[in-house]
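Entry 14. Two folds queued back to back today. First construct below, sequence then C-alpha cells.
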Amino acid sequence: TRITKLAFRNRFTAAEKVMMEIASLDNPAADMPARAQAAALRANQADLAAATFVDLARPDTLAGVQMLEAAGLLSPGRALEILDAPVTPEERPL
C-alpha cells in the first residue's frame, strides 16, 4: 500500500489539485471554521511534503483524503477511487 509522494499526487486530477491549492489559502476575513479548514489542508499538505512515501492504508492518509471529499474538494466517491486503486509497479517507492 506504499506509493511515492508523486504517485499519490498523480492520483488527483489537475482540477482537484487546483481546488485544494485555492482552498488552502488563508482568508483573514473568513469565519474561524473556514480558516481552520484551510489550516487543516495546509497542515495535511505539509505532512505529505515531509513524508518519505505515502501509505494508502494509514489511518491519517484515509482521514485526509476523506476530509477532502467531505469538504467538497473531491466529488462523491473520489476518496475511495484514490485510496483503493491498485498500486502499480511504477507507483512503488524504490
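Second construct, same run, same settings:
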Amino acid sequence: VGILPYPITFLITDLISEIYGKKRANDVVITGIFASLFSLLIIYTASQVPATSWSYVQDDVFQTVFGNSAIAVFASMLTYLFAQFVDIQIYHFWKRVTKGKHLWLRNNFSTWFSQFVDTFTIVTLLCSFGIIDWANFKGLLISGFLFKVFVALLDTPFLYLGVYLFRKRFNLKINEELDLL
C-alpha cells in the first residue's frame, strides 16, 4: 500500500528543496520519521487491546494484517530516511551543476536514483526479515522501481507548477531560496 503515495513524498521534498533549500527539506524528512513512529505506536497500542465483541475485525485478523507492522514500518522508516537524504543530496548537486536551471533534470535524476535505492533497500529488508519471500525479490524490485519512475515523470509538471507559484508568490529568482532564519 505504501508504494502508492510514497513517490509523492519525493515531489514534496524536491519542491521544498527548490524553494526553501536543503536544510528545510531534511527537516521535513525528519518530521516524517516522527510521523511514522507515531503511526507505529498507534498500531502497537491497538494490537495490545482486544477487539470489541461487535467488531468486524477480530484480534486474529488484526494480527494477520498488522502483526508484522513493527518490522515493516521500521524497515520502511530506515529506507525512507536513507532514500530521502540521497534524493536531497543529488537534487542539490544537480541544482549547483545547472545553476538552478533544468528543473526537470534534477527532479527526475535525483528521484530516479533515490527511488532505486529506496526500492532495492526496502525489498531487501522485507525479504531479509522474512516478511516477503526472496522468490518475489526481482519482480518487486523491477515493478516497484518502474512504478516510481512513472510517477516521477508524471509529477514533473506539478513540480514546475508548484515552483512557479512559489516563485511568483515570494518574488524569487531562479536558484534563489527563501531564508526562514
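Quick look at the second one. The longest helix spans residues 137-170. The helical segments are 6-20, 22-48, 59-66, 69-97, 103-128, 137-170.
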